[in-house]
Amino acid sequence: MLESSKDSAKLDAMKRIVGMIAKGKNASELFPAVVKNVASKNIEIKKLVYVYLMRYAEEQQDLALLSISTFQRALKDPNQLIRASALRVLSSIRVPIIVPIMMLAIKEASSDLSPYVRKNAAHAIQKLYSLDPEQKEMLIEVIEKLLKDRSTLVAGSVVMAFEEVCPDRIDLIHKNYRKLCNLLVDVEEWGQVVIIHMLTRYARTQFVSPWKTDDDVVEEYNENNFYESDGEQKEKDRNVKKTYTMDPDHRLLLRNTKPLLQSRNAAVVMAVAQLYWHLAPKSEAGIVSKSLVRLLRSNREVQYIVLQNIATMSIQRKGMFEPYLKSFYVRSTDPTMIKTLKLEILTNLANEANISTLLREFQTYVKSQDKQFAAATIQAIGRCATNITEVTDTCLNGLVCLLSNRDETVVAESVVVIKKLLQTQPAHHGEIIKHMAKLLDNITVPVARASILWLIGEYCERVPKIAPDVLRKTAKSFTNEDDLVKLQILNLGAKLYLTNSKQTKLLTQYVLNLGKYDQSYDIRDRTRFIRQLIVPNEKSGALSKYAKKIFLAQKPAPLLESPFKDRDHFQLGTLSHTLNSRATGYLELSDWPDVAPDPAVRNVEVAESAKEWTAILGKTKKEKPTEKFYSESEEEEDESASTGATESESGSESEKEDKEEGSSDESSGSSSSSEESSDSESDSKESTAKKTSGAVKESNAEESKKKAKGISKNRNTSSSSDTESSSSEGSSSDSKSVSDSRSDSDSGKSGSATSSKVTTQVFVPTKTHEMLHRMTGKGLSAHYHFSRQPDMFGDHMVPVQVTVTNTTDQKIENIHIGEKKLPLGMRIHEFNPIECLEPGGSVTVSMGIDFCDSTQTASFQLCTKDDHFNVNIQPPVGELLLPVTMSEKDFKKEQGMLTGMNETSATIAVAPQNSTSLVIIEKVVKAANLGVVPSGQDNIHRFAAKTVHSGSLMLVTVELKESSTAQLIINTEKTVIGSVLLRELKPVLSQG
Amino acid sequence: MLMRCGPGCHCPSPSPSNLIPKRVTSKESCQATDGKHRQSQKMIHSLFLINCSGDIFLEKHWKSVVSQSVCDYFFEAQEKAIDVENVPPVISTPHHYLISIYRDKIFFVSVIQTEVPPLFVIEFLHRVADTFQDYFGECSETAIKDNVVIVYELLEEMLDNGFPLATESNILKELIKPPTILRSVVNSITGSSNVGDTLPTGQLSNIPWRRAGVKYTNNEAYFDVIEEIDAIIDKSGSTVFAEIQGVIDSCIKLSGMPDLSLSFMNPRLLDDVSFHPCIRFKRWESERVLSFIPPDGNFRLISYRVSSQNLVAIPVYVKHMISFKENSSSGRFDVTIGPKQNMGKTVEGVVMTVHMPKAVLNMNLTATQGSYTFDPVTKVLTWDVGKITPQKLPNLKGIVNLQSGAPKPEENPSLNIQFKIQQLAISGLKVNRLDMYGEKYKPFKGVKYITKAGKFQVRT
Fold first, then answer.
1. Span of A87-101, A843-857, B251-265 with lowest mean pLDDT
2. What pLDDT, on the 0 to 100 scale, is given for residue A755?
């Protein structure tokens, strides 16, 4: 039929073959006939052939090669679905000869326009790796490239590939860490699971422990530290408590995973739960319990896994699940494995407060028809009794009642548990022992009989009358007993012989004789051993003197522990944890590092932490001639031909800045930074040249958007093609991040070369504000301006650059921030004190202020060595924003959600010179820190930003109408800021 | 000293790892020694579908082939577990791990080779079962056998190299069209296929759950608020534990790309909520409004738990008198069900099931309303009551015959009750309004409330 010319006949045949495969029958002899159809036009036949190929290609390698060319052709198909599926099949054919072809295909696909194809490329990486591990290095390169991908579709798959191929190359994650955190919510659910697990491991290596502030494990350890006095230790602890602040990236991860607790996918919820368990400060981990309890409503299998994990958690931190105690109550319809797990958790959660309710609940369980479960309940009662001393007696009485139960397993289990309990506090339980001795006649379960005998032997002095009698009885039945019981009879005999030899000497001898000829060698051994030890004869050595001590020594009580006690060394939610044994490929979760590795490695491009910033400030770079800076920026202007206006703007701006800062060699923040990055510029130029000469392959919109966004984050690009100016303006960056920013910015450029729509324009406002006048400041003057650099001091801070100038003829020493008078919630990240300012010199320092999204003034004191001045900083509303890049579609979507109350609008007259789009964009962006949204229409301009503190979206639309009017619309949740912004933007557009 | 912790030293019950069977089948071992496929085999390796009688009726491999003999370990565990419910979901074998689920009398057994979050696999297997259900109307052995090709195509799309690829039913339906009688007729005539040839738009967009270009002549949006009461009532009739769990199931048939927002009169009631991925979490956090672009067709919008502070109104009460006489082979059984706090609505669809103790041989009962059955094999008594009318309370009463000679059962069985109340959400949750943005037409909107018994158990 496969030879038939009709598609329908072929299809029918293929369906039958697939049916055979599904049943596990061998269909390999049809291989040649099937392979011929790989080029079929009919897509269903094609798919079925693919199915067949994947199954049998490995067995028929030579013939499989026939099909390869078809796939190679399909890889170039304009239909992305076909490209993707060709890649899938090609990579699924496990034929080693085609490894190079696969490698090539993966490389090509990894830069495909379609994210779907790129996703498949990520999948293919794993397949190729399992086929030929020697390709590892090359594959890592591809992974590195795909990790940079911003598509949510790709993220999950590439992290999966990363986990498989090179889970130890944590360095590849650094740069993508923040991006992954931010994308996480939008990634499909399976990807989320993988990413969360990976990030958990990552975070464990990169951040310091947040648990130091908590007082369990760590402090316990400290107490054992004998060489330091307690007082010191406490002091130290307190210090740790004070100094620990969570790395913002650590916080970012926790914050971004939290919404996923609401996922409908149990695996995602569990992944987040384990992330919080392993990473969050103990006080925060509690939020996961609610969601975990919710999972208990789903299928049996999910319940099983979740309960296991809760069991482990509840041992260490009871408090987490205590409020949900009742959710773990057992129903008679639950399967046994679920019941026992629930019981386990209930036992873990038991404390003084809830024990009475729990015991009542347990009483119901004991009567359960499920005997296995009833037995487990008795053990649980035993554990509660040992853990909570208040109820020990109650439990014991309850258990004794159970001894009269009809069911043997229940009785046996009770005996065993009672034995353990009595051992923990043998004080005055003669009565119970007597009662149990009576029971001996009826109980047949060996474990229980043995337990009773042992008890009587151990406490034979307390029941002097009964013990010999018991021995007599058991001696009679000795031959019929289980081995376990026999051993205990021997023990009992020995103990009695030692304490009460008058009555029992003969009996013991008798028992020992029986034991001597027993079938089991264990018992013969034991008999011999005991005889030597206790029966005095001439040969017996020194040991027999101590026989009593040996046999009747105080025995430590057994600890009744949860079987889940030792599971916590496995990462929660993993297969290893479920099995309680290392599964293949389990990756150990590392301990927290004592000192966090440099957080700067995660900085993408120029984003910088404050510390390094000041460090660079410290190292004044006098050698660098300023001319070079100018020449650089001129070159730059030449290069970027298209946008003269904005370009010169930024150039002149930096000049101005320089002038303000004076010509002195004092390292001013911006100049040092621009020097730094001008290095990077020349490099980036080179690569740009290369790039433009070469084929600009990956210039799809997606890509360029991503790059543009990356840049806009780091601030000011004046327009699409002068990305360099961004890096020249950029805050200083260590060499690593510069090199990265370079590669990113040039691909950004290549993107914009083809699609100039996607641009982001951000400005550094040139306007400086006076903070302290020279007269009031007794010769010290200070100006500030908003530098618009995000990520400087954490997410909520608005960065401010303060230029301090000394106009006196003496040195001014120790300039720092003194007393702060801030409205509620506002915070200031101070600049590092300036030790000394030479006469006539000036220094620029940067500080961060969290304005809490309000335009209230931040007042503080600017202090010198011997004076202090009250100063204020009031932010223009435009500076409370961070630009956001989004597509027009997203913009409209978001806008659609922010209507009604959240919308403010106004109609304004626009000055004629302001009607071109370039000018409008420039003006608006200058007035407020907004990101430009690419617009399809010429007369509508859209800008997007989010507020610095709360991250609420701020969407600005300028729609030009006829007769030089314009509609200005602002959509935001923060209506107050929205209306203020509207008020501020109005004059910007109406004035010339 | 040798008896440190005495004879009764009770080892903790054997952990699953101890269950590893000793024997290794020859085929299995050569699989694993195959050098080419060393450690790196992540996620789901193979899937076997096994019916209740232990036949493997479908197998699918995403990587190299794993022999069927691996399932022997599963059968072994199944034997040990006695009850299907008690088969451990995770089984460890010398070279593989088996993770299984039991759905609709079929075991879905997946073969794993390395560390993977078990829930990941379990959740995926359930998703597979859901998809079958969705495609064939039922997830049964016959349905799967009849549609083996579609099943294969589906599995191929859902999993690539063991990693989930497309699991949204909307996307799958675009890739592989579900079978209908009409389509199979058309296909056989025109020769067209069940397989889509373009990439579903959903796969690429940020909203993978919705396909583009949906068109309806009647635009409708229905929401069913279904609440279930989980409760344990003790002997004396007092509530040991009660909780309300709810879901909102939606059926949305709207054209284009509608953007809906659903608000509640009393959103504070919702304590713990899990969302369909389409819901915008931020909006919920800030305004307690469900804002979403819905998938097309039927789906579960949210599931929620009502905060536990609120007292749960229990709509029925049960009066029971079950006793077994000492030393005689009979017992008495008398159960009455009555309505309570039902807010003026009738309680209907009442069914009581009781797992009687093993010693029970037969039951001789009379019901004043409805009918009862007793299965002497499984010892399950089912009483289908129907509607409860307060005037005449339904009662079931009679004699229980016990095995002669057997000891009297110690515990009375617990009664599982099911019921339904239409037009009532027991928590008092009310939908306030539904708004639609993004499309011009006016949709028809409807909300329905139902309260049901969830795991409702009365201990006697």
1. A843-857
2. 35
pLDDT at B382 (0 to 100) = 92
pTM of the model: 0.66
Contacts for B14 with CB less than 8 Å, ≥ 6 apart: none
Q: Does B448 touch chain A (CB under 8 A)?
A: no
Residues 6+ positions from B191 with CB-CB distance below 8 Å: A7, A8, A42
Q: Rounded distance, CA A308 to CA A723, Å?
A: 53
Q: Strand A940-947 vs strand A931-933: parallel, antiparallel, or unpaired?
A: antiparallel
Residues of chain B with Cβ-Cβ distance to A157 below 8 Å are: 163
State yes or no: pLDDT of A125 exceeds 70: yes
Pick from B168, B75, B179: nearest CA to B128? B168
Look up residue A365 and give its amino acid. Y
Chain A contacts of B273, Cβ < 8 Å? 262
Q: Is the pLDDT of residue A785 over 50?
A: yes
- To test the contact with chain A by mutation, choose from B51, B123, B300 the residue with the greatest count of A C-beta atoms within 10 A, namely B123
Could you tell me if the ipTM is greater than 0.85? no
Cα gap A221→A215, rounded to integer Å: 10
Please report the pLDDT score of residue B223 as a whole number. 93
**HEC letters along A446-512:** HHHHHHHHHHHHHCCCCCCCHHHHHHHHHHHHHHHCCHHHHHHHHHHHHHHHHHCHHHHHHHHHHHH
Closest Cα partner for B271 from B303, B243, B306?
B306
Confidence of residue A239 (pLDDT cuts 50, 70, 90): very low
Question: Which among A8, A130, A578 has the least Cβ separation from residue B37?
Answer: A130
CB proximity list for A168: less than 8 A, separation 6 or greater:
none
Contact B153 A43 (CB under 8 A): no
Measured N-to-C along each axis, helices A917-927 and A644-661 cross at an angle, to the nearest 10 degrees, of 30
**Chain A partners within 8 Å of B277 (Cβ):** 189, 263-264
| Distance from C-alpha of B21 to C-alpha of B26, rounded to nearest angstrom | 14
Give the nearest chain B residue to A414 (CA atoms). Answer: B8
The whole-number average pLDDT for the span A555-565 is 68
pLDDT, tens only, A324-369? 888 888 888 888 888 888 998 988 888 888 888 888 888 888 888 7
B115 closest CB neighbour out of A129, A185, A575: A575
Between residues 364 and 393 of chain B, which touch chain A (CB distance below 8 Å)? Answer: none
Q: For residue A974, give the nearest of A797, A822, A855 by alpha carbon.
A: A855
B317 interfaces chain A, CB cutoff of 8 Å? no
Task: Read off the tokens for B202.
Answer: 């959903």
Three-class DSSP category at A838: coil
How far is residue A549 from each of residues A476, A544, A555, A689, A891, measured CA to CA in Å? 28, 10, 11, 91, 85
B389 in Cβ contact with B368 (< 8 Å): no
Three-state secondary-structure class, residue B230: strand
Mutate to test the interface with B, among A150, A369, A408, A588 (most CBs of B within 10 A): A369
Residue spans of chain B under pLDDT 50: 1-41, 191
Residue % of chain A over a pLDDT of 70: 75
Interface test with A, best of B27, B160, B270 (most A CBs within 10 A): B160
Nearest to A327 by CA among B232, B425, B233: B232
Residues 6+ apart with CB under 8 A from A128: A91, A99, A102, A103, A106, A135, A139
* Residue A544 pLDDT: 65
Q: Determine the Cα–Cα distance for residues B229 and B315; give it in Å rounded to an integer.
A: 9
Averaged over A631-645, what is the pLDDT?
39
pLDDT tens per residue across span A423-478:
766 566 677 777 777 777 777 778 788 888 887 887 777 777 778 888 888 888 88
**Which residues neighbour B100 within 8 Å (Cβ) at sequence distance 6 or greater?**
A301, B74, B87, B89, B91, B107, B108, B109, B110, B125
